[in-house]
Every structure is written in structure tokens, then in C-alpha cells.
Design goal:
Helix content of chain B: 40-55%
Number of strands of chain B: 0
Number of domains of chain B: 3
Radius of gyration of chain B: 29 Å
Number of strands of chain A: 4
Shape of chain A: globular
CATH class of chain A: Mainly Alpha
Largest interface: A-B, 45 and 43 residues
Oligomer: heterodimer
Number of domains of chain A: 1
Distance between the termini of chain B: 72 Å
CATH class of the largest domain in chain B: Mainly Alpha
Structural class of chain B: mainly alpha
Shape of chain B: elongated
Distance between the termini of chain A: 57 Å
Number of helices of chain A: 16
Number of helices of chain B: 12
Order of helices and strands of chain B: HHHHHHHHHHHH
Strand content of chain B: under 5%
Strand order of the largest sheet of chain A: 1-4
Chain lengths: 540, 271
């Protein structure tokens, strides 16, 4: 029951439009610092572009996808009209205004601080206020998801919350809490300096606040992808979810262990105690658990589909899968990229192994493979699956869709594998320029060239994606029917209250945040003499 | 079971969920705060509490650290947003009177005929800092130091504002413009040298860095050599010394010749 289609379409279109712009900037960045591009002679332009790319891809694009998909889930899984449509539009417009407000100072070269803010670098105040508006807009969505579920519960006392909605609300709570870290950093540290009320900043404390957000935000980006794994893919390929309980456990595990792990981003930071780094490292290892549970459950669900289609044997069933179905293709690509990216992630979270790749291009390769690869390819799949239900028109060009997914997969592998490699060779990240004529780094030139070519393959795939969706707006009309989610092998009739509500797991998430972040934040906030002069971007 | 019964130990999920989480936390905390600190043979702790405090990141006073001797004075200039803001016409006029005594080397219009720096239109912060450094002894020069030693804070500010106010005129002996050498636009990343242009103009300008267009080639070369040999040391945190030491003599010559050949009117307007 998708009633507010315009609202959902607006979120998706805005998300994909800004994605297109940021993708173009990304390809240009790959080109300009590779041996095939001619150096611009102005590093500032590179950092300007990098800030825009990161801000859009990190804050605006995935948030809009999660919001649009969230509204769609709320209406179709709960079979209930969205409550608070006006508020939803308010949230949408806040994001539009915030994005414009943030992008103008970036374009003027007044906020080239990268999306991770990097204090003591301080950019124009309006950049930060724009980011705050985007976050506030998304918090409206968090509240709406919670309210819609509450209303549904009242109408269906004791009933099992549909898996898609259970996961969606878990994702929204995760976002609400993880964004608090960056919000504290902005409100307490950066904005007073950017507004001219202070001219020193505690960069170490600011970095700790940001690490609170920086890792869990990835799991917020991941949520729509995991929801698609569990609730769209099995239905789309004619299978069933192997275990509804396993799915719920995965989502609550994300809620509990995604938060108290961010300090593995500060392994090289002297202001954080080694004991806390170890605890965060151990909890990061635990995040592998929900992912491994998911990989197992989804492989089992896919096997069910294959055996229903006549697949036989220990591995023979794999051939019986519907490989021409874009959803199957997207899932397979996503899993391959998740596998490689996850393996790289285990290296990043290990204190000693991290030392060899910290702040190198390995890291850039890693998060592009996970986010740009495993996660975003499922965003495409979600859009393809939802589009006929949103537009009432058919997506005819299945072949083009398959080509687009293939190109994205190939492009991402060609981009990120050489990136990892040059990282191992020691190439630093966040550099606008490399002198490949120098014998010390000349051997890396070939890898970087491949990587840049991969960037253009991604750009081509991104353009195809937008073209497919745009053509879908003008295709012949069809009746797509009601939007449905995958059924489990054993559909839940009653679910234990702990797996049907979020309270216990949200409480654990907050408790672990306090144990793992409380003392380091308190310690840094009360230690005198830790502030440094701010460095103003673009100041003379 | 209602939500009220969720947070009780009779609820299996609550007990298991909280129990496992707490157990993991306790085990990792013991490992991180007690076991691992003592596993480092090169660090000694007085007792367990000392090890826990160290692992928690409590700031501790480092024992037996002696500050290295500073045989010469360092630059102590502090520039706030108010130091040189909006000079009055009187202040610039006072600066003009004071500048009479500078004219013999720096020229009556702020353009030198004697391989001294051209000061016309130089950033106020730059002149302010150098005069302070000459006065305090952080920078020494047989000719300049005696001029600076008796200046008051106000006189230094007035002089800075006066020279910043003057129009940027072409050098006394303009030479044909040279193309940008690599050291100016690329630096030398593998030797840790940022492009000259990223602070001194051509690409970007950073507070406290002078623009160099049209300055004397001999002067710039001499200053780079003085930085390289640590004869000159009023650069904060050795910014210029680290760069000049890593530069080759060809790069020093190329950078000096390039900037000397540029007309000063291409300097980005900042005021």
C-alpha cells in the first residue's frame, strides 16, 4: 500500500541527482591526480571537490535513500498510511536547504575541510549549519518511523512487527544515536569557532566525538542494503527467508555493537588511551558476527529458491539460480564486494596490522569497496525493485539494468583493488598531487592509472542508472500490484517481546557508548591546555 | 509478555543479552587495562592502578625530560585579529614619517634599489613580524637590527600599516617573466617540500608569509641559504628551515629567479 509515492520519489530523485554530481566529481578527482591527468597546479580546487564529494556521498545521498526507503517500508510493510506526511516533507525540505547551504561555501572555496571536518581546520559557518540542517531533517524521519510503528502496534497488540519495519526502525534508532557524536562536535567545538566566538579548538576531543559518528554511520548506510538482502531478494528470486529470527538477531546486534567501536579510527591518535583502543578493537571484531549471520541466512534463503527451481547437488543448485534476474546479480556482486571489503576491514581494526596501512590509500579503497560497492549496488537494486510501484510504469530494459550492474561491479573492483595495493606500498591518502616522475613512486603509476579508469567505468554505470530510472518515468503504464516483502520459511506468528521491540537493545547501545566513550570524553574535556589555534580555510 | 516485563531478570533475552555484553566488556577491559600494559616489557608500572591509568589515557607527567637549550631567541610575535585591523589615516601618516629613515635602503616609494626587500604593498602582518623579530633579536642583521631596536609597539604597527597601504609598484630593474618552475607549483613531495606558491602566492597565501613577486633575486637566494644553514631562525616551528635544507641549490636559484621576474601587481588582492 504505497500512498505517498510522490514523497518517496522526491527522496529517491534528490538522492540520485546529488549522487550523480558527486560521482562526476569523484571521477574527476581520480583522473586529476593520476599520471594520465595534467596537474591543475591548484591543490585547493582538488580539496574543494573532495569536500563536496564526501559531504554528498556521506551525509546527503545515503540519508535520503534510507529515508525514502523507510517511508516505503512503513506504508507497505505495515499496510498503513504514513502518519505525519507534512513533517516528512518538512524533513525533506530541511535537507534540500541544508545541502544548498553547505554546498555554496564549498564551491566558493571557503569550506575545504573534507566531510570529516578535520579540526583545527575551520571552514565557513554556513557549511556546518547546512550539515546540521541535513541531520535535523533526517531526525524528523527517525521520529516518524518510531511514531508509525507505535500507532501500528496499538492497532495490532501482540502481533509480530513485520521484519522490514523492525529492521527499518532499528536503522533509524542507530542513526539517531550515532549522529549525536558529530552533533556534539559541531555544537560544542566547531560552530563556536566558525562563528568567531572562540579561536582555539580541542582537536583531539573533536576527533573522539567524530569517531563516535564515523563508524556507526557506515552501519546506518548499510541498513537499507541489509533490509534488501532479507526482505526483497528472496521474494524477487522466488525463495523464502531461511530464518526470520536470525534476521532479527542480526539487526539488533548491529544496534548494540555498531556504536561503541569508533575509536579504531583513532589508533594513531595519542590523546586516546591504549586500553580504550583495545576495547573498541574487540567490539569491532564483534561486528563481523551480524554480517556472517546475514551471509549464512541469505545464502540459505537463496539455496531455497534454487532448489525450488530444480537445483540439485551440493553445489549444483548454484547453476539453477535466476542469474538473469537483476536482483540476483546485484546480490552476488554485493556479497563479493562485502567479502573483500570485510576482510580488509578486519585488517583495519587490528591495532598492529592497521599501523601498516593507516592513512594510506588502502583506507580509501576499503570504504569505497564497502560503501560504494556492496552498499550502493543494493541501493540501485532497491530503486529498480520499487520503481514500478512508485511510478506505475514498467522498467522494460532488463538488459540495460544488468549491464549497469555489471559495469558498477567491474568499475568498483578496478578502482578499489589497485587502491588497496598502492596503499600497501605506502601511498598516503588525501593528497592532491603525486609526482609519478619520481623514481620512488614511479612503480605505482600503473596501478593508479587503472584505478582512474575504473572511476570512469563507475561514472558510465552511474549515468546509465539515472537514464534507466528517467526512462522508467515515461514507460508504458502497468499495474504493479501491492509492494510485498519476502516471506520466511516459518512466518512468525508470535515473537518474543525482546525481538519485537527495540528498547532493550537501544538501552544496551547507550550503555556501551557510556562505558566506551564516557571516560575518554570526560578526561579530554577536563584536561587543561589541550586546545590549539584554529586554522581558518581561505583566510589571509 | 508486555514491554514492562522486558527489563527483568526473569526475561531470558534480557539476562542473556545483558550478561553476554557485560561479560565481553569486563573481559576486554581486563585485557586492555591490565594484561596488555604489563605485556610490554619496555614499559614499567608502579602498580596495577598505574597501569590502568596509563591505559585509560590519563595525562601523566613525563619523568626526566629536560628541555633542550635554546641558545638563540625564538620569535615571540603574537598576531590577533585586532592587532592590525583598520588602521586610521593618522596611523598611516605616522608610519610615513617613521619610514623616512627606512628609505635609504628600501626606497622612498618602498621599492629598493639595493637588493633589500621591496616593502610597498607588502602584507602588514609580515612587516609587523619581522620588525618585532629584529627588535627582540630573533632575527639579526648588522644594518636592520640597530634600526629596529628602539621602535615601540605602536611604531612597528604604524610602519606595517604604512607600507601595506602603499601601491605595489614594479621592481626597479624588471626582468622578463620566467615560467613557473616545479619547485614553485609542485614543491617536492618526496622530500617533504610544499610548493613555494602554496604559501607565498602564485597558488595561495598563508598568514605571515610575504608575497615575493618582484623581490630582489640576490636577497631571496641569500635568505634561503641562511635558512638552510640555520643562520636565520625566526621561522616558527622551523617551517622555512626544514624546506630550505631539503632544497637543492638549483631549486633555490630557480625559485629566486622566478619570483624576482614576476610583476608585483599579480599578487592577489587581500585587503
Amino acid at each position: 500500500m504505497l500512498v505517498n509515492r510522490k514523497l518517496i520519489l522526491a527522496h529517491f530523485w534528490l538522492a540520485f541527482a546529488v549522487f550523480g554530481i558527486a560521482l562526476t566529481l569523484g571521477a574527476w578527482q581520480m583522473f586529476i591526480r593520476s599520471p594520465i591527468g595534467t596537474w591543475l597546479s591548484n591543490p585547493e580546487l582538488y580539496y574543494r571537490s573532495l569536500t563536496a564529494h564526501g559531504t554528498v556521498m556521506g551525509y546527503v545521498f545515503p540519508t535520503l535513500v534510507a529515508m525514502g526507503f523507510g517511508y516505503a517500508i512503513s506504508e507497505s510493510a505495515l499496510e498503513q498510511r504514513l502518519i505525519g506526511v507534512r513533517w516528512a516533507w518538512t524533513g525533506f525540505w530541511l535537507i534540500v536547504i541544508g545541502s544548498v547551504m553547505a554546498v555554496i561555501p564549498i564551491a566558493l572555496g571557503r569550506a575545504s575541510v573534507l566531510y570529516t571536518f578535520y579540526p583545527p581546520l575551520i571552514g565557513n559557518l554556513f557549511y556546518y549549519l547546512g550539515v546540521v540542517l541535513v541531520v535535523v531533517g533526517s531526525w524528523i524521519w527517525v521520529a516518524l518511523m518510531s511514531i508509525n510503528l507505535r500507532v501500528w502496534r496499538k492497532a495490532h497488540p501482540g502481533a509480530a512487527v513485520p521484519l522490514a519495519m523492525f529492521a527499518n526502525v532499528a536503522g533509524s534508532y542507530l542513526w539517531a544515536w550515532t549522529a549525536v557524536g558529530a552533533a556534539l562536535e559541531l555544537l560544542l567545538q566547531i560552530i563556536p569557532v566558525a562563528a568567531g566566538l572562540k579561536n582555539t579548538i580541542d582537536a583531539g576531543l573533536a576527533r573522539v566525538f567524530f569517531s563516535w559518528t564515523l563508524h556507526a554511520i557506515v552501519y546506518f548506510w548499510l541498513m537499507p542494503t541489509y533490509i534488501a538482502y532479507y526482505t526483497i531478494v528472496p521474494r524477487a528470486i522466488g525463495g523464502r527467508v531461511y530464518s526470520d529470527t536470525m534476521a532479527r538477531i542480526s539487526f539488533i546486534l548491529f544496534l548494540v555493537v555498531a556504536m561503541p567501536i569508533g575509536m579504531h579510527h583513532t589508533f594513531a591518535d595519542p590523546q586516546v588511551g591504549a586500553g580504550f583502543k583495545f576495547i573498541h578493537s574487540a567490539f569491532t571484531a564483534l561486528v563481523a558476527l551480524p554480517t556472517l549471520l546475514t551471509v549464512f541466512t541469505i545464502c540459505a534463503s537463496v539455496e531455497i529458491a534454487a532448489r525450488l527451481r530444480g537445483g540439485r547437488g551440493l553445489f549444483g543448485w548454484i547453476g539453477a539460480l535466476p542469474w538473469d534476474n537483476p536482483m540476483m546479480l546485484a546480490l552476488a556482486f554485493s556479497f563479493i564486494m562485502l567479502g573483500f571489503g570485510g576482510a580488509g576491514g578486519l585488517i583495519n581494526m587490528s591495532y598492529q596490522l592497521d599501523a601498516s596501512i593507516h592513512n594510506t590509500q588502502w583506507i580509501t579503497g576499503h570504504f569505497h569497496l564497502i560503501f560504494g560497492g556492496a552498499i550502493v549496488i543494493m541501493y540501485f537494486a532497491i530503486a529498480y525493485d520499487l520503481w514500478p510501484h512508485l511510478t506505475g510504469r514498467e522498467l522494460i530494459d532488463i538488459r540495460l539494468i544488468r549491464t549497469q550492474l555489471w559495469l558498477w561491479f567491474i568499475g568498483m573492483i578496478v578502482t578499489t583493488f589497485p587502491w588497496h595495493w598502492v596503499g600497501i606500498l605506502g601511498m598516503p591518502r588525501r593528497m592532491a598531487y603525486f609526482d609519478f616522475g619520481d623514481p620512488a613512486i614511479a612503480p605505482q603509476a600503473l596501478s593508479v592509472t587503472f584505478s582512474a579508469i575504473g572511476g570512469f567505468v563507475l561514472l558510465a554505470s552511474g549515468i546509465m542508472f539515472i537514464v534507466i530510472l528517467a526512462r522508467g518515468m515515461r514507460a508504458p503504464q502497468i499495474d504493479a500490484g501491492a509492494y510485498r516483502f519476502a516471506l520466511a520459511v516459518h512466518q512468525p506468528t508470535t515473537v518474543p517481546v525482546a525481538l519485537n521491540t527495540h528498547a532493550l537493545w537501544v538501552a544496551l547501545m547507550i550503555a556501551l557508548t557510556i562505558t566506551n566513550y564516557g571516560y575518554p570524553i570526560l578526561n579530554l574535556a577536563t584536561t587543561a591546555g589541550t586546545s590549539v589555534p584554529a586554522v581558518y580555510v581561505g583566510a589571509q | 509478555m508486555s514491554t514492562r516485563d522486558l527489563f527483568t531478570f526473569s526475561n531470558r533475552h534480557f539476562t542473556i543479552g545483558v550478561g553476554i555484553t557485560a561479560a565481553i566488556l569486563v573481559v576486554t577491559a581486563i585485557a586492555g587495562f591490565v594484561v596488555l600494559p604489563f605485556a610490554q616489557p619496555w614499559v614499567r608500572f608502579a602498580n596495577v592502578w598505574d597501569a590502568i591509568c596509563s591505559a585509560a589515557g590519563v595525562a601523566q607527567r613525563a619523568a626526566n625530560v629536560t628541555t633542550p637549550d635554546q641558545p638563540k631567541r625564538l620569535s615571540e610575535v603574537v598576531l590577533t585579529s585586532r592587532t592590525l585591523s583598520r588602521p586610521s589615516q593618522e596611523a598611516i601618516g605616522r608610519g610615513a614619517t617613521l619610514a623616512q629613515r627606512c628609505a635609504i635602503c628600501h626606497g622612498p616609494t618602498g621599492i629598493s634599489r639595493a637588493d633589500s626587500p621591496n616593502l610597498a604593498g607588502q602584507y602588514a602582518a609580515v612587516i609587523y613580524k619581522e620588525l618585532h623579530d629584529f627588535r627582540s633579536g630573533a632575527r639579526a642583521n648588522a644594518v636592520m637590527s640597530p634600526f629596529a631596536v628602539n621602535l615601540t609597539d605602536e611604531e612597528i604597527a604604524d610602519l606595517s600599516n604604512y607600507y601595506a597601504y602603499l601601491p605595489r609598484l614594479p621592481a626597479y630593474h624588471p626582468t622578463p617573466q620566467l615560467p613557473k618552475p616545479n619547485i614553485v607549483i609542485y614543491g617536492a613531495p618526496m622530500r617533504g617540500i610544499a610548493p613555494c606558491g602554496s604559501c607565498h602566492g602564485s597558488l595561495d597565501n598563508k598568514t605571515g608569509s610575504p608575497w615575493l613577486e618582484g623581490q630582489s633575486e640576490a636577497y631571496m637566494k641569500a635568505q634561503l641559504q641562511a635558512f638552510a644553514s640555520s643562520e636565520r631562525r625566526n621561522d616558527i616551528s622551523q617551517q622555512m628551515r626544514n624546506i630550505a635544507r631539503a632544497m637543492t641549490s638549483q631549486e633555490i636559484e630557480a625559485a629566486a629567479a622566478y619570483y624576482a621576474s614576476q610583476p608585483p601587481d599579480i599578487v592577489k588582492a587581500v585587503d
